[in-house]
Amino acid sequence: xxxxxxxxxxxxxxxxxxxxxxxxxxxxxxxxxxxxxxxxxxxxxxxxxxxxxxxxxxxxxxxxxxxxxxxxxxxxxxxxxxxxxxxxxxxxxxxxxxxxxxxxxxxxxxxxxxxxxxxxxxxxxxxxxxxxxxxxxxxxxxxxxxxxxxx
Amino acid sequence: xxxxxxxxxxxxxxxxxxxxxxxxxxxxxxxxxxxxxxxxxxxxxxxxxxxxxxxxxxxxxxxxxxxxxxxxxxxxxxxxxxxxxxxxxxxxxxxxxxxxxxxxxxxxxxxxxxxxxxxxxxxxxxxxxxxxxxxxxxxxxxxx
Lengths: 151, 144
What we know:
heterodimer, A: alpha+beta, Thiol Ester Dehydrase, Chain A, five-stranded antiparallel sheet, 3 helices, 5 strands, elongated, B: alpha+beta, six-stranded antiparallel sheet, 6 strands, 23% helix, 36% strand
């Protein structure tokens, strides 16, 4: 069943702040095998002009995708999550996420489309810091495959 | 922000150093923990096959993270990346054979976007087992 077009433009309440910890950044950097010292060494990060260690570019997805749960699990929208695959992902940064950030995410449904029986949902997650300054915007495209494709 | 590559030193077609990233089941378990994405298609072979996949597959976001390293290692400062996007076209299949999979990433400068902001667009190619696993993989990078 096609998703309701009237959901386009709907914005969900901002999430409670996620506090970015330096050890979580280190764990993530190690998990992707990235030894860039800007992720783990405060002095190296400062030498690049950052106040503290920064996170790899895709780190913030864990935060924005959790926030997108508000949309994905919205019973009124009725997305069948068991059929969802991640189609596209894009980030636009004002600055890198860094240790000590307290980040809130505001999720908005940007587009709802139906193509060849697939439901396509574009979610924008605006990430702001404690001062209300923009940090990064995440654009996530989810595709719920048509039920008839299942064997 | 302190990129180590100068805008004036690159041109359209400049190639970034290519890199290959090995992925094993252990890599995926570790990434699941670090990212909080515990979807069983990334660690449970039985489950993956039940939902129609050939085998366990890597997290798309893991592949996206590895591809970014070609850009951040080149630029020096990861904060030089001001935009980054990908399309997940094919899964990276990770067999439990002691070897796993390999993600091969190359990149080149596709456009010089803004002489004042000193931004370029880098187009990335990510391959695994001879298949293109990311499409539209592009980063905007602010150079020195």
